[in-house]
Amino acid sequence: xxxxxxxxxxxxxxxxxxxxxxxxxxxxxxxxxxxxxxxxxxxxxxxxxxxxxxxxxxxxxxxxxxxxxxxxxxxxxxxxxxxxxxxxxxxxxxxxxxxxxxxxxxxxxxxxxxxxxxxxxxxxxxxxxxxxxxxxxxxxxxxxxxxxxxxxxxxxxxxxxxxxxxxxxxxxxxxxxxxxxxxxxxxxxxxxxxxxxxxxxxxxxxxxxxxxxxxxxxxxxxxxxxxxxxxxxxxxxxxxxxxxxxxxxxxxxxxxxxxxxxxxxxxxxxxxxxxxxxxxxxxxxxxxxxxxxxxxxxxxxxxxxxxxxxxxxxxxxxxxxxxxxxxxxxxxxxxxxxxxxxxxxxxxxxxxxxxxxxxxxxxxxxxxxxxxxxxxxxxxxxxxxxxxxxxxxxxxxxxxxxxxxxxxxxxxxxxxxxxxxxxxxxxxxxxxxxxxxxxxxxxxxxxxxxxxxxxxxxx
Length: 459
Description:
Layout: H1 10-21, H2 32-39, H3 53-56, E1 66-67, H4 81-90, E2 94-96, H5 109-117, E3 122-124, E4 130-132, H6 150-158, E5 166-176, E6 182-194, E7 212-222, E8 230-236, E9 244-249, E10 254-257, E11 289-301, E12 319-320, E13 328-329, E14 332-345, E15 354-362, E16 367-375, E17 380-390, E18 392-393, E19 396-397, E20 399-400, E21 403-404, E22 406-415, E23 420-427, E24 437-438, H7 442-448, H8 451-458
Parallel strand pairs: 2-14
Antiparallel strand pairs: 1-2, 3-4, 5-6, 5-23, 5-24, 6-7, 7-8, 8-9, 9-10, 11-14, 12-13, 14-15, 15-16, 16-17, 17-22, 18-19, 20-21, 22-23
């Protein structure tokens, strides 16, 4: 009888030992990031049981299988608690696809190149902010690809949400009531512009704005009663500071300042997600605290095969589940070999309705694949589950400059206490003629990210 050197219990023991010590150390058989740097391939960093759902479940679940209520208990340990309940109790299903071993398919090209180029240069200063080794603002890519603590893991999320210098997302949202009907439907623009950590263009900073981190705006284009509603966040590089928040509400007919620490309210009626939920890291990271690594484990995450542009010209998706078969998007999940489970608390928000959040972060690209929050009683409240992909579907391919685009494709935000679901896609185009685009340079700032732009859009 042949006994495998690395059996099914080996990686579990490694993960438990690291978690008990409170440290991250991506990779099981070899350090993950140096393995990626050598070849772009993660295979030598993990045993077979972490690279294939077939091996992980000893053949009980295979690539291509559909996970339903009938077989979800086999992979319960690979799901966050809300995703498990959705499948077990509400008719959700998803399809298993192969694990992505080529790390170049998990990043925008320029962002991966910057992560490789700047590996080892990230530091946390005395205040907890990210700097380079010589104390300057961050210069691009993940500052801690080989993160050792929960705070370092989280810094990879906060510093560049969409992992492009700038992005415009054309978003179509549907809000589903407990009876399974669509109660609201919105079209809106989400625009981002980083001012530091730029990964292309010859300089990592926008000159004169090195004290900022990003500009981010939301513009609603439909329906008519929401059209003109707009918000603009200005984030500071100092993660102890709250962003500046201005907005235009059509009923007020003027731009006004909003309390920036009230980040736990829906932007418009019916939506279940807050500014705080964005990217699993919607607030400056030092306005949260008590960062703890509470687990390291494999997970099922929507990290590939989720772009539908070849099947749907507007990049929308099939639906299923819930009382009227329209609560959940069709989506695809793969076995992510190693994920860090980080919890933190809203120390800067004394009136926060959230007591803590738990974020599941894929060690391969340091992007979150799941996020749940707990109310002030400590009860599970909401999930905010994203999906990502290279933008290839059959013969349809979306380019980001010279390279295939990578971005998020859809999100499902579920308030399990009221059983209300908000689900939205990154669409090709929404009402108003706005299209999704990346790395367009200064035009995005002038079009979307100034007070004049907010006023112009609103009026």
